[in-house]
């Protein structure tokens, strides 16, 4: 694996292990909320729109963190700033341990800001230290994110029962975040902070490729966070128990793991990015249409839809980051491009759970809300066609 252009005593595989530890915390805090959403609504007396606002606020703050990520990384060094970003995730988890709507929303905002910052910084660190295997490294840390999300969604309800309340179930995810920061800190300290040149700290929004990646990330992020928030409540509305719906969400998350691991690596082998991005998006759209048209199919049940949707969103996010890594010249440019793309994507995704909740309240059903996800898939398809398979940046 290619070492950084900066002098460093840290081996690439050590950097990768540290990134995997940090990345495990970048979806767990968010994934632990949807299985508890109906319980939170009942205990706090909130509407579906307000319940969606909790997740929407977190994702919108992810957008804010993404936009700020390149500047923060340039100021403090991407590696050191990355540890601080995951520290924010831990702080937000602690705040969500207070069983009140204000602390739930406030803690979710802090969690979102930390995740947004970390996502951009991760992209730059991969480009800087693991450039020759950017696709595999990106898939690896996204898989780590998904493992954290899968565990969080599967154990959210049992933890709530065992610990005595939904707030404790949310707060528990501060612990692994703090452990990951402790693991990463000595690694980051061995990497020198680059001189502040002031170059490439601005978001390259004028670049056509950057705008297309923003459209792509908006589409895949809306589909991910829309289903992350409303898949479990949707099937609770079909008569499933919260535990069953939580397990369905866990299956959706588990399916994302092989998709995230293998799709970028397969695309990297022959630079067939458009083929793999199109194939996996088609799976996601098929699962979404199936869940809307036939929520409870015979024999296989909704599990087949969850698997197909999981393939789509599981591969979508790392494929978007991989194509950025291929076509940017260095870590600073990669962080700037991903900062804009993720910022736009998370802003769109942050509005989606709220919009879906409002539509559910207004129509007292889910079809209009699911139509939001189909529109997002269409936007992602447009970006895939336009990005194509142009050669990677040397």
Please give a structural write-up:
This protein has 394 residues and is mainly α. The protein has one domain (15-387): Up-down Bundle (Growth Hormone, Chain: A). The protein has helices at residues 12-23, 28-31, 37-44, 48-76, 78-95, 101-129, 134-163, 166-171, 174-189, 208-236, 242-270, 273-293, 303-326, 331-363, 367-387. Helix 1 runs antiparallel to helix 6 (101-129), helix 4 (48-76) packs parallel to helix 6 (101-129) and helix 6 runs antiparallel to helix 14. It starts with 11 loop residues before the first helix and ends in a 7-residue tail after the last helix.
Short description:
It is built from 15 helices and no strands.
What is the 3D form?
globular
Task: Output the CATH homologous superfamily.
Answer: MFS general substrate transporter like domains
Strand content: under 5%
Mean pLDDT: 85
Kindly state the number of beta strands: 0
Can you tell me the CATH architecture?
Up-down Bundle
Can you give the helix content as a percent range?
over 70%
InterPro entries: MFS, MFS_Cyanate_Porter, MFS_dom
Transmembrane segments: 47-69, 81-98, 104-126, 138-159, 165-188, 209-232, 244-263, 275-297, 303-326, 338-360, 366-385
Keywords: Membrane, Transmembrane, Transmembrane helix
Protein name: MFS transporter
Which short descriptors sum up this protein?
MFS_dom, single chain, 394 residues, mainly alpha, disordered N terminus, Growth Hormone, Chain: A
